[in-house]
Specification:
Elements lengths: L16 H9 L6 H33 L4 H50 L2 H5 L3 H13 L1 H10 L1 H18 L1 H7 L3 H38 L1 H6 L3 H26 L2 H24 L6 H42 L21 E10 L7 E11 L4 E5 L6 H8 L7 E6 L2 E2 L5 H5 L2 E4 L8 E2 H6 L7 H10 L3 H5 L8 E2 L8 H13 L5 E5 L7 H15 L3 E5 L11 E6 L2 E6 L1 H7 L2 H10 L3
Parallel strand pairs: 3-10, 3-11, 6-9, 9-10
Antiparallel strand pairs: 1-2, 1-4, 4-5, 7-8, 11-12
């Protein structure tokens, strides 16, 4: 199966920036009233900012020039009043947009998390967990500034630019052209920087994802690292990945740092041209001092929004790759989905049949691997089927297909005659119990971990499940019994104890079809005997598929399937297979010859 490791950069499909921004802004639809309030506040602040230079012009030409200080005082008081209103409106705008953007970030993170829950095993098989976490946490967080400033930056600055242009050209078109003469130069410079920098920030995100994936893997395997004295090797690998991220970041910043020199240079030249044209070419009395000062203010008001928009564009370029990575996950379609006409699977008896089933991993790629080839069998209700065979023969694949974690390419799998592709996935899986050799323990109480198999389970049901697998006794010896808090991944519990709790979690759901994939592989012989006694009653009446390399655990199976070379090489009861003296006989003798 094609796997993207922490050493490889992820491939992300390039997306039109306008589509990304439009998609982000689409999340604002649920906050119409709040957005209207923000727009109203912005309209007031833009209006006041556009009016301020006219107040300065009036103060100079109408009051200072005429020595009317009483009028100047009244004008100043009015200016203070409207600018206090300006400050209040800015605060309201910032607060409301912060509220909206945080709510939207929460919704996007929930959407991504919920969508990931629906994705097929192939999605998780093909990439490290750390890279998935990087998108849910880091990349989603990066969208916050884009969301808030898309409204609070683009709209008021655009309105300000339009308003300034109208006022400047109405007052004097010659001064307006002088103040804007460097605009084409600035536009070309920013366009070049944006095109160059988008690719660089994409690389930064990929390198950061690699570091996150490696750290997640290293922390998860810290016991192995320390037990093998491999700290120096892992440190060197981390330093190499971190250096790649640092280098890509510096490379991106070099281009990003060109934004402001381009803007400042354009701004400075435009002001020089404004005063040159105003003083030298036109001059007094046609251009009064108040008009020239007002034009200087308007020129500054024009270039400030340009600088703000350029800063936003810089942030957008920086975070656009994060948005692409988030939407890349949201646009990933689950390979396993309900058919449009899928119906509910009713309460089942447990007849499981494979009809000429073939399955290939990564079909159509260079990593294509045929695992099952025209496999057919039927398991009757209540029958226990044991699957044995060499590693990679397809035992786990068979039970994964029964749970429809993957879809077959050829053939049909039925339960009680229902084609699995024509029933709803949740109605299938809620009637199945699956326990693998990966006995994951969640942070929480013992009761919480067992109840994960049936969220509405009563204390009596939880205790009955624990007793059935002989976990009750050691649980009651713990500090708070079933209410004892367990650490992440069950730290502090023995492997056997973790396995028994996981087993109870599977059993509490009372499944109609039970799958045990190497479920007793890590339990010692004494504990295994206790578990075997406990599960016999639970297996009774349920169709069960048991994968085990330890053949002592499957001697009570109704039938044993020997899986090899893509199919069922042998099948029969333990006694029948021993009598055949075939593959199973050789495997059995190899395990027990020295006992």
């Amino acid at each position: 199966m094609a796997v993207n490791s922490f050493r490889e950069d992820e491939h992300i499909q390039a997306t039109d920036a306008r589509k990304i921004v439009t998609r982000l802004l689409g999340y604002l639809k649920g906050y119409a009233r709040e957005v209207i309030l923000v727009l109203a506040a912005m309209t007031i602040t833009v209006g006041i900012s556009l009016y301020n230079p006219l107040l300065i012009e009036s103060a100079i030409d109408d009051y200072v020039a005429e020595y009317d200080f009483n009028g100047l005082f009244r004008l100043a008081a009015f200016a203070v009043a409207i600018n206090i209103l300006y400050v209040i409106m800015v605060k309201i705008r910032i607060y409301v947009m912060s509220y909206i953007s945080n709510k939207i970030i929460l919704r996007i993170r929930e959407d991504v998390y919920e969508h990931i829950q629906s994705l097929s095993f192939t999605f998780f098989d093909s990439r490290p967990s750390g890279k998935i976490l990087a998108r849910i946490i880091g990349d989603v967080n990066s969208l916050k500034d884009v969301l808030s400033k898309a409204v609070t930056n683009i709209i008021p600055n655009t309105l300000t630019i339009i308003g300034v242009l109208v006022i400047m050209f109405v007052k004097d078109w010659r001064l307006a052209l002088a103040a804007l003469c460097t605009l084409p130069f600035m536009a070309m410079g920013i366009f070049w920087v944006e095109k160059t920098n988008h690719v660089r920030w994409q690389l930064v995100r990929k390198k950061a994802s690699n570091v996150n994936a490696y750290v997640h893997e290293d922390v998860a395997g810290i016991r192995v690292v320390q037990s093998l004295d491999a700290e120096a090797e892992t440190r060197n690998q981390f330093n190499e990945l971190a250096q790649e991220q640092c280098s890509s970041f510096i490379h991106a910043c070099r281009a990003a740092d060109l934004f402001f020199p381009i803007i400042d240079t354009s701004w400075g030249i435009s002001l020089m041209m404004l005063y040159l044209v105003g003083v030298k070419l036109i001059g007094a009395p046609e251009i009064s001092l108040g008009v020239l000062v007002a034009f200087g203010s308007y020129a500054t008001m024009f270039w400030n929004p340009i600088a703000n928009l350029s800063t936003f564009l810089n942030q957008l370029v920086t975070n656009l790759s994060a948005a692409e990575r988030v939407f890349d996950i949201l646009d990933t379609e689950p390979e396993i989905q309900d058919a449009p006409d899928a119906g509910e699977l009713p309460q089942i008896n447990g007849t499981v049949s494979f009809e000429d089933v073939s399955f290939t991993y990564d079909e159509g790629t260079e990593n294509e691997t045929r695992v099952l080839d025209h496999v057919s069998f039927t398991a009757s209700p209540g029958e226990t089927i044991a699957l044995v065979g060499p590693t990679g023969a397809g035992k786990t694949t068979i039970v994964n297909l029964i749970s429809r974690f993957y879809d077959i390419q050829k053939g049909t799998i039925r339960i009680d005659g229902y084609d699995l592709k024509k029933v709803k996935i949740d109605s299938l899986r809620k009637q199945m119990g699956v326990m693998t050799q990966d006995n994951f323990i969640f942070h929480g109480t013992v009761r919480d971990n067992i109840a994960y198999g049936k969220l509405d389970a009563t204390d009596e049901e939880i205790m009955a499940a624990a007793k059935a697998v002989n976990a009750h006794e050691f649980i009651m010896k713990m500090e708070k019994g079933y209410h004892t808090e367990l650490k992440e991944q069950g730290a502090g519990l023995s492997i056997g104890q973790r396995q028994l709790i996981a087993f109870a979690r599977t059993m509490v759901s009372q499944p109609r079809v039970l799958i045990l994939d190497e479920a007793t592989s890590s339990i010692d012989t004494h504990t295994e005997i206790l578990v075997q006694k406990g599960i016999e009653s639970l297996l009774k009446g349920r169709t069960s598929f048991v994968i085990a390399h330890r053949l002592s655990t499957i001697q009570n199976a109704d039938r044993i399937f020997v899986i090899n070379n893509g199919g069922i090489a042998e099948q029969g009861s333990p006694a029948e297979l021993m009598a055949k003296k075939g593959f199973y006989y050789d495997l059995y003798m190899a395990q027990f010859a020295n006992l």
